[in-house]
Amino acid sequence: MNKIVRHLMFIICFVCSSSILFAQNSSEDVMRSNGKIYVVVAVALTILIGLFVYVFLVDRKISKIEKDN
Fold this sequence. Notes:
Elements: H1 2-21, H2 25-34, H3 36-68
């Protein structure tokens, strides 16, 4: 199960880093000057952290059930 979690984290990091390469400067500057970019980053990080915590907790529960059986 840990392999699946590692592969999932790798894929998510790869997708996030590749999307940064295609970002356009004009929209980024407008959002940065208005301060909205920090809200977008905070929301995205909150969602990603929540997903990682959820996957970690589910992995622990499944491991515990496998050990009991």
